[in-house]
Fold this protein.
Amino acid sequence: MRHHSQRLPTHVRQSPPGSPPQSAAYAALQPRGSAWGIRAVLLVTGALWLGLVLVDTLARPWQRRPKSWEFFQGPREFNEAPNLSRRLDETRTSGPLGRDLGVISLATPYVMREDTTRTYLETNAQGFRTVASSPPFTLALCGDSFSNNNYFAEALAQTTGLMVGNQAIEGRGTLTIARFLEDRPADYRMTKIVLWESTQRAAINDFAKIAAYRNELRQPKSGSYKWRQSLLWPANLELYLQGSSFSKPVLDKIQKEMKWRLLKKHTDLIVLGRRDLPKEQAPMLFIQADEAIRANATPQTQLDSIADCIATVDHDLKARGQILVFAVAPEKSVVYPDRLPIGVTARISYVDGLNAALRQRGVRVVDWSKGLKQAALSHPLDLYYYTADTHWTPKGMRIASQIFADSLVKWQLTPGRVH
Amino acid sequence: MIFNSYVFLFGFLPILLIIYYGVLHTIKARNAWLTVMSYVFYGWWNPLFCLLMMASTASDYVIGKHLYQAKTEKRRKLLMTLTVIVNLSVLGFFKYYNFFSINLNHLFAWLHLPTYAPVIADLVLPVGISFYTFESLSYTIDIYRREVKPANNIIDFFCFISLFPHLIAGPIMRYVDLNRQLENREHSEGKFAVGIVFFVTGLLKKLILADNVAPLADALFNAKVATTTLDAWLGSLAYTMQIYFDFSAYSDMAVGLGLMIGFEIIQNFNSPYQATSVQDFWRRWHISLSNWLRDYLYVPLGGNRKGKRRTYVNLILVMLLGGLWHGAGWTFIIWGLYHGVLQAIERALGDKHPLKQLPVWGQRLATFLLVLVGWVFFRAANFTVAFRILGNLVGYSSQHGPLPVTLARPLSGLLFLIFATVVSMSYPNLWTQPVRLNLRTALLYGGGLLVSIILVLTRQNSPFLYFQF
């Protein structure tokens, strides 16, 4: 097995016992080619590789780095998202179909009525920003990408009159609530009400992670633990270096484009909404994997399991004198079913089924879906959701915050809606 | 650290090579540098694991020296026993302690006796421990057998054990494979270029083939319910391809990296899915492990020298322990037992074996199917899953359960699965082809490297399957 060395142009010779080599077994180690051929391989691969390494290393000081390396850490992840400006991802909807329709990007006809002005939101070191409120916070907003833009926290502060702190983290929101339970910042010691905004995409697997996150956050803060959490721990350093690499976003775009061109495949398939609408109404894009329109609905058994997870959180918050209010941020297709393509219908079983299961378990629930849908019907010219994005607009946030404020009044948790 | 990671490709490897070729010029300095960097490579998972490997290596180095100098047979045997106990205790504790405790507790509970064996919930298996323990152990056994002299200096020995290309997932090198290369090895442009070809081939095999067929396999083995017969076959075939292209990719990368620093690392795979019998399969699959088991287990047990029955028992026992080496679980033991029994039957029947009556393509296909069935046990989390999948393969599903479900079949996964199956079953492997070093190869592998870097940087990390064993 190790006699291949005898076939190599090397002085190394070994003489171990064993069976003799197969005649053609190690032909690969007897390369064919001239000195130029060898140099061509070394030059092409070496130049490419070292070129990338050099560019990546030299460009690093000019790269906009994440504010905190904690951004890359699982349960201690901080929210960097408010720093990012909202912009269109044209690669998502590029491709031959777009060309057939005569547009650069499929998103183009759908964003004509949308405000796509870039916004840049400054945040504090932890990635949070509050404008209308200041600590101590009486209302904690624990949400996901629907909430992490601070407009929603501002709208809540205005409609409820409470001091609102925003804890939202992009994703499924489950990390947010786990961190709020186990790793609550000092500014939230006086919090009375916790609003848990949860995307309709959050599935049982996401909610099941809460226990693991909480368990990890509960670990004693020993020296070894702190080391593992620090940037000096190799895995953290690797995440940081890769996450802040200059080449990564560039190569990411190349990979997306290659994948689309070669495999016609993208992470999210886009559903083009109806365009034969009255002139004043904006057409919309939807995502095929949205819970409300995908092939399989979430079964009631899973909704019950999700409700159990939420009820556990409710119980633990009650134990420390806080009130949980849970609300599903409905998908665009639920609020705008009339703008889906003909033949596609939006289910409401997730929102209705989960809300019913939660009420049975004594959890306070706010239903945003009906109010938003009603508003969308009454004011077809106003956009409550972005046309080429899955999230709600500041107008949508305003409606949601008003519904929430009304619920607080109904439950006599606040004296009345402010605006 | 894994080979297909940003930090390895953009940090570790460039620094290692620049210092190795640009600054250091003596073989001793280069070996010392490789040792330091190999510990950095290993410690990347958990720096504390380095201490364990250091202690294990140092103990074998010291015992090896004393073993060589021992004057009496009694002392030699004593030292040999000591090294076996030290190595197997470390491996046994980290890899098998919990398995042993859980099963002992089950046994006692079944006998209605109080259970007392504590289970250590957060016991972490140090990466690559099965590989470096076997390498370290082979060193002292070879000295005991007087087949090799102990290492001249401690740096060379530490370098042999920790040498990063083969440290985590093999090939399992013996000291005799590397000792002369540690003292003197040639570095040439040709060798480096062949190393690049091997390394890039390995990267592409892992990132394009293994990672793309993996979702089909995961869908089947993670399914909680019975699947259609077609899905059972697709999922099992996908895992059969995934494990081959994953593990052989790692070996190719190890060989390539070894050549870049002047080492010639042994071949670990020789087109195993073209084997014409199960015995032939094991001469082609994970060759370094098969040879280790043969030299240090099968032969000492008596091999085929103590009669037919004993030969069959030895074959089965060696394969069973080989299964256990892969993981502390009953499914691995049954997988090993299955291969042992198949080999014993082949040996017992000789030319009368039904397989031998088939044409060569038939022998290959039948062997492939037998191996595929074995992988079901190897991959399944437990016997319930394994037997459910085996039932589904022949169209059986429980009468009382829900109807068999159809799994997602992504087109890209299916295309790569067909490609991987055709290539692995009918094409010669890289080792049998003389590498042609010319501009065409340069452009081909330059493109391959670029595609690999794009995939590495834009995907989630996907560790190699054999890291867990």
Chain A touches chain B through 59 residues (CB under 8 Å). The beta strands of chain A are 139-142, 164-166, 193-199, 270-272, 285-287, 323-329, 364-367.
